[in-house]
Structure formats: structure tokens, C-alpha cells
Specification:
single chain; 242 residues; alpha/beta; Spore Coat Polysaccharide Biosynthesis Protein SpsA, Chain A; 15% strand
Length: 242
Amino acid sequence: MIWTVRTTICLPTYNERENLEPMVRALTDVLPEGGRVLVIDDNSPDGTGDLADRLAAELPFLDVLHRERKEGIGRAYLAGFRQALASDAELILEMDCDFSHDPTDIPRLIDAAREADLVLGSRYVPGGRIPNWGAVRRFISRGGCIYAQLMLSLRVRDLTGGFKCWRREVLERIDLTAIHSNGYAFQIEGTYRALRAGYRVAEIPITFVDREAGRSKMSRAIVLEAIWKVPLLRLFALSGKI
């Protein structure tokens, strides 16, 4: 049975000129009827925002949100969530623009949202794969997930991934104004807040691949933020603030 649901895909960009148009064209093939794509550009110096505007003039499903400066992926997603919530979107997705998340997986995330309030595209459940990562990056990513699992007493396997499908009522409930994390910590905090609020979280397997064009936004600061933010989240939960 076809599930007709209003969907917005949030696509944050910073210097993604090489990837943006191929990604938007790929989303054309998987976007549900009436669905929209929201590009959130942090004033990219490479002209990504200008390209997004030109594409939006051509493609009726594409919207562009321009931000004044780069503040991190967490701030970009929060701005995108607020704009999507101001529309009639029932499902709000987040994904990377660099093709590390496969657009053809979007229908699977949307379908899983029939039974779950938050769906995670997971690298670490059976069937999930990361075919081209080296040992060091695998250790950092998997170690970060296990660290968060243990500190927060969670069973979710992939807490740091950024391929997600939210029901709008979850984002309306979890108090976006209280989230100040970026990077890995932003993904961990969002899922943790959803679970603490009693929502159903499901993981479906995905294949995650490294970008082929552009530069990774990963940094030491992103890793360090997750290290100190995770125990802080636990303290907030124990004190009743989450």
C-alpha cells in the first residue's frame, strides 16, 4: 500500500558545489509525491548557495535557506528543522550532501517511519556496511558509538550517524532550543532526547561510503565535543533536565 506522507529532506551544505546538483538530481527520483528538499547553505565561499538558488529556480520542489556564516552542522540542521516545521511536513529527514548517504535508501527510511517515530540509517546493525574506511576511522566511529551507548545506557547501535527520518511531533516535543551540540554530539543528543521522551527509534541497515568530491568536515573538535557532551547529557537526564 502506498503511504502518502508530506516529506522534507534537509540537506546542509558548506562548500559542496561539486556534489549539490548531482545530489538534487538523484533526489528527484526518490522524493515522495509532494515532497520537498531544503538546502541549508552556510554562506559557502565556493558558490554552493548561488548554485542552489539557480537549481531552485528550475526545480519546484527545491527550497534554499541561506545562513550568514558557518556554525556547524548541528546549527544548520536546527535551522532547517524549524523551517520544515513551519510548513506542513509530516516527516523530516536529514542526510549528507556528499553521497555518503545513498539517496535510494530514502524510501526505506520513510517506509520504516510507519512503525517508528525516529528512523536511523545504521552502519552497525546486521546488513550495515562501511566498505572503504580504514582501521583508524572505523575505530573512532565505532568507539564513539559504544562510548555513547555505555554512558547513556542505550541499545541503539549507530548513535553518531546523520541519516535520519523524524516524525514532526518528535522534533516539536524535544525542545530544539535546548540543543547546543554539533557534529557527532548533535546526532547523539537528538536520538537520546527522543528516547527519553518515550518515542520509538528504529534502525535500518545502510551502506555508508566516503565522499568522492570535496573535503570532509570531520575535525578533532567534533570528536572532543562528543567526548565531553555525552556525560553531560547523562547528568542532565539524571537531574531531570531531559
